[in-house]
# Entry
Amino acid sequence: MRAETWRLLAGVLVALALVLPLVPLAIWSGAHGWRYPDLLPQQWSGKAWTLALSDRGGVVESLGLTLTIAIATTALAALVGVPAGRALGLYDFRGKRLILLLLLAPAILPGIALVLGLHDLFLRLGLVGTTGGVILAHLVPVLPYMTLVMAAVFAGFDTRIEAQARSLGAGPLRTFATVTLPVILPGLLTGALFAFLVSWSQYLLTLAIGGGRVQTLPLVLYSYAAAGRNDVAGAIALIYILPGLAILLFTASRVTGRGFGAVLRP
Amino acid sequence: MLRPLAALLLLTTAATADTADGEALKAMTWDQIVEEARGGTVNWFMWGGADNINAYVSDYVAGVVQRDYGITLNRVPITDAAEIVNLILSEKEAGITETGTVDLIWINGENFRSMKDAGLAFCGHTALLPNDALVNWDNPAIANDFGVPVDGCEVPWNTVQFAFAHDSAVVAEPPRDMAGLIDWIKANPGRFTYPAPPDFTGSVFVRHVFYHAAGGPEALLGPFDQAKFDEVAGKTWEILNELEPFLWREGATYPTTVTQLNELFANGEVAFSFNYDPAQFGLAVQAGLWPETTRSFGLADGTIGNTNYTLIPFNSPNKAAAMVLQNVLLSGEAQLEKARTKVWGAAPAIDIARTSPEVQAGFAAIEAHPSVVPAEELAKAALPELQADWLTAIEQGWTVNVGN
Amino acid sequence: MTDRTRILLLLGPALVLVGGMVLSALGLALLRSLHLFPVVAPDLSAYATVLGSPGFLASLALSVWIATVSTALAAALALALALLLRRGFPGRGMVAVLVQLNLTVPHVVGAIGLLYLVSQSGAFARLAHAAGLIARPGEFPALTHDPYAIGIILTYIWKEVPFITLILLAKLQTLGEGHEQVARSLGATRWQAFRHVLLPQLAPALAAASALVFAFAFGAYEIPLILGAHAPEALPVAAWRAFTDVDLTRRPQAFAISVLVAGLGIALLLLYARLTLPQRGRHAG
# Structure
């Protein structure tokens, strides 16, 4: 009983700690100025939310753009990462370790090690300042996660079910769609979740490759915060969190078939 | 959602009226240029740190150019104009001469000098703008941008003069000159700080101390002089280093931007803020960020003032539309609108006496915000800017000698 | 189709796209830092300037400090949290939910939120003022824009503990409690079972996750940008400032910093590989 009480206490503390940084953001989003030492704003105002949700604020546009980029990057990562994961999970071959390192590198190399070189590369390719360029660039930090997850999935994959389908006359596409895909889907969704989240939170890479023209939500959020508009920053922060949350809920229920407290149990 | 977004992307990247050829435009009449500009787009890269300025540009100005010329104004917020100079420089390096990203940039000072020197500016077209006649080019403070002749490379937008802000409820009688301020800082430890150069505002504060150490700017005007610089800089660093232990956080760290300083001021961590544009003080009070008891003042020994401008890069693909926009920005009506207290309170760059009677009446009717010291009062003790070389040297010197 | 061809086709896009971009990026950075591109004028001056400048060394030391402390504390806390969440207690579900939600919160949001929370005029300071503990913002400890980068470290801990915890929980589930129970039945205390049985089993996963966290904490830009003191700057901030300097001679220096960081990153990569790829051809998942 006592051990359980300690655990409960610790649990409460952890829960609090996880939520706490979001609280002042939420309060700020409704404040008309909030100066020290006030615990709560003297005056409340909806103007931050009005601005954030209006066309003028640039937030809604940025939200759409960031979603587009994240979804496109995820789709691209799936297209490229699923076959790569298959190769790494099913086969052994010379140079496999090296290739694994190369594909893993962007997740481990600190961002600054690659961003400057990528900017130079994209500048010469004429892709700086374009949304397409940003999507392509996002693939760099995103692909390792997709590939690793898919490699793990395919490592436990029994190719005989595919062979059976083929022997029954199904073409390669049909086999993939009806036999392979359902089996790898939970892993694919997990990989897609990681891919989405990595692209969703990119800052410096988007700043560099986007050339200041591709204003994704983290850049807009930082602009307002750096300009002292804490209220708008608070509103944007809350808006910014929502899609990731939604996708987590979606994939969690798909991955386990239950609520995502169940993700903890296999 | 994706399809209209994709369509929008395609539309914005395809120039409807690509007017990259500046020389051809300069040979045309204004009416021809306006025709070239119709339906075009202007990507205006400007500091996005003030919501009211953003609203003035995105609502009022964009509305005017859309209504009168069918031009779409795309305001692109940036944190520092140096980033954009860097971008255009990279584009020039990469051989991009007709399809640059930037059509217009809000700029002055060192950044202007960098662009002019590196041949990044579109020049020689400003006399074509009808509203150019409203500008008093005989005023050396307008004809020269931080000591560098404008030479038709940029168009004036605002004039500003540095002022301090304080909370009259906390500091009833602020110091009135630089010596007084230095004494005040030492008597009130931890209650003052300034943004670290090369932040624009921090840099100009340090220049005030520099002028103070030199006993006035007269000897410093003109081209950079290493000997004079060394002499004055030595005294300046001494003053600032002596002050350091009395600053906020004992000078262990400085705010990196004027915004951080404004937050410290808003929360009472420091007793003073300051800005090139005192209109910002009124806007901060109106937004509820600063207390209503905020008041502002200049210094008896004078504060530094300058003009800021808009500039079209050499590789802009929308020069005609950008020129039309510059003309609109210069118009009496647009300058009056931004001078309104609730909109911005920005001082005009044009000579009000040259505008129409309606516009002149409008200016006369403007009531300044109580927190904003009137521009005319500040102008009584105005100090000129130094040439950009001095600025760079002062900023670098500060980083090495004071900012450790 | 031979296996070899099949493998090439499957890996091709990934290698060409990402492998190509990564190698090109590293190559370009290297060449430009040595003044070998676009004009060949071999010159080590960028490295000399960078390595000789006290600013760079201070930034490097700061980034190493931030990454080390963040990783060590995050790993320790994550271990504790994983052990906590292993067994049931009222509210465990809620905590599990929040741990996963935290993963979806981008770093920028965490940094700004933490700034509003722990700055000298932030939420905690105001609570302290309301409780009568302090009278002025200056009396509250300086946790942001401070020389020890406490705010930055707190942000990394806040963001990375859930990440490491989930990895450990997954590993704990595959391990099961069998080994510890055997140890306990043989007379080991709880602590001994943990120290000598469980910890060694968790160590590879913990170390691998820590390597990832270290790399991130070392190389992230936006968190020190928001929470850091003005000098010394964290290395990524210093590098980006050098890169965007109007003075073009700083560009090769920025690339030099990037190359040096890449060197460190490759060392981390090899370490991570050793921890997670124990045998040739086998993928530990």
Q: What stands out?
A: Chain B touches chain C through 25 residues (CB under 8 Å). The mean pLDDT of chain B is 89. The radius of gyration of chain B is 22 Å.
